[in-house]
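Weekly puzzle thread! Below is a chain. First person to post its structure in token form gets bragging rights.
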Amino acid sequence: MGVNEFSNNLINNTAMLMSSPPVHQSETEPKKDETSNNESQIDKSGQRVQKMFGEIAPRYDLMNHVLSGGTDYYWRWYTIRKASPSGTSPILDVCTGTGDLAFAYWKRGRKQIPVIGSDFTQEMLELAREKFKKKYRKEGDATSVEFVQADTQELPFDDDRFQIVSVAFGLRNIADTMQGLKEMMRVCQPGGRVVILEFSLPGNKLLRGIYTWYFRNILPRIGQFFARNKHDAYEYLPETVSAFPYGQQLATLLEQAGLKKVKFIPLTFGIATLYIGYKPESNVT
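Winning reply:
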């Protein structure tokens, strides 16, 4: 009980902060030697990721809500308002998991905009389809949310198709980050947006130390207790978050992939960050 009370109090307190203003350079950005060197040492092979997320799929939603203290609801709420859809062109949510961001975008578009959720893991997609039937789908809806099994590094969609291509907490799980970004931009319409919601680390050194300690020592134990799996998913989570670029470093990667007018917005002390970039109107980058 002591561990659970500590972790819940810590996350619930961090959830109280609202977002910071958009920035182009941030005190929260990591040093290069804190990310790129470590990231290459993490096993993000397709087979490992598929098996790991397949094993935790039945308790995936519960663990997300518990471990974030419910803050994940706010992060998605903020994302679909900061990068709101318009018109009738479809939306794609990659690495969709059980579909929470896809559903949020569908509702934000008043169920008039078709949404596709793609994911590498079949078990996640099965839960997403079931969730849609039970919680969201009603007779008479003009559109629906479809789910497709796909690798974000090789998306099975035509060029220039989607007004928004989004990903929530999945970009760091793609083996080749740049290839994933290029594919997201390829299927995005000219003038459309690539929207990324991803974990990051707090800018405040004291808070970062406390948060990192919690992430590495408490979260894996809670996660493993509730969602027992052979592939240590909740050891993998802090490893990837600590090693993955964030802030200006990730914004620079988006620009290198060809996106323009990239901005990033730290959320809740900087433990998550929202990135928005635009695909150029012209194919020339």
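Puzzle host: Confirmed. Bonus trivia for everyone else. Confidence is low (pLDDT under 50) at residues 1-28, 32-38.
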